């Protein structure tokens, strides 16, 4: 299965800096405004981090988290919970040793697709993941917010009972000196990419809080725009709808044919650069498979030699 990943971020008109950071497979995107796209095959990681507002150096926390994720050679054997815990500890250590960085924090919403194309969402905080299938969009992750906590405990019957600050407060983050991140897993029930229109969207709350599900569905159904144009349009729509935060989105779309790729990107796959990219990634995968196969053969040989040695003794 091939995947096209595109991410776009905009600091918005009200913020002086962009505290959002994006992971596009192995590439970290940290800029005031702009996008980046990549063609890849599984295994892959894609994520959105949103530096926690009201705390020191949120942009540094999100950048550390994303750059650390980009350095992971992910496959099904990797314990991502352990990786996130290590990133959490790294952010704390950096915050303690820096000037004005104590208790810097970030949210994390991460899509992991392993070498078998099995997908899972890992979430900390209130950035969101959506999955679009068969013309319908649904939220995969669950917001880790104070309002959700009170509602589940039966303290409130409606979010409207809380003030705006309480509604938006999160109860878990990566980098907090008060507690470890509460990492929630949401495994995909059906294989990712099985349906023709299967798409994953990861958004910061600056977008998800100002875009309705209907608007997301309509954007995905537009056939006259490329995938990147749709995502950029959603960011601009969130800003026009009144978002006062940084606005970011990452979209992941499986594809199998040159026609699907051209529809996604507006560029024929015959483009030399794209062909070289896909070929290089396929060669890399073949090398990895040969390497793993050789390791198994070497292990079997060593086991056999050890057995012979024991028999001779």
Please give a structural write-up.
With 313 residues, the chain is of the alpha+beta class. It has 2 domains: 2-268, Phosphatase 2c, domain 1, CATH 3.60.40; 271-313. It is built from 9 helices and 12 strands. Strands 4-1-12-11-8-9 form a 6-stranded antiparallel sheet. Strands 3-2-5-6-7-10 form a 6-stranded antiparallel sheet, with helices on one face. Strand 6 (108-113) and strand 7 form a beta hairpin. Helix 1 (58-70) runs antiparallel to helix 2 and helix 6 runs antiparallel to helix 7 (227-240). The protein starts with a strand and ends with a helix.
Q: What is the number of independent domains?
A: 2
Q: State the share of residues found in helices, binned by percent.
A: 25-40%
How many beta-strand runs? 12
- What integer is the average pLDDT? 86
Poorly predicted tracts of residues: none
The main pleated sheet reads as: 6 strands, antiparallel
Helical segment count:
9
CATH class of the largest domain: Alpha Beta
From the alpha-carbon coordinates, what is the Rg to the nearest angstrom?
A: 21 Å
How would you classify the helix and strand content by structural class? alpha+beta
Strand line-up of the largest beta sheet: 4-1-12-11-8-9
Distance between the first and last residues' Cα: 51 Å
CATH topology name of the largest domain: Phosphatase 2c, domain 1
Instruction: Give the percentage of residues in beta strands.
Output: 15-25%
Broad shape: globular
Order of helices and strands: EEEEEHHEEEEHHEEHHHEHH
Question: How is the secondary structure organized here?
Answer:
Layout: E1 2-10, E2 20-24, E3 27-29, E4 33-41, E5 44-50, H1 58-70, H2 80-97, E6 108-113, E7 119-124, E8 128-133, E9 136-139, H3 146-152, H4 164-168, E10 184-187, E11 199-203, H5 205-208, H6 213-221, H7 227-240, E12 247-255, H8 258-265, H9 272-312
Antiparallel strand pairs: 1-4, 1-12, 2-3, 2-5, 5-6, 6-7, 7-10, 8-9, 8-11, 11-12
Helix pairs in contact: 1-2, 6-7
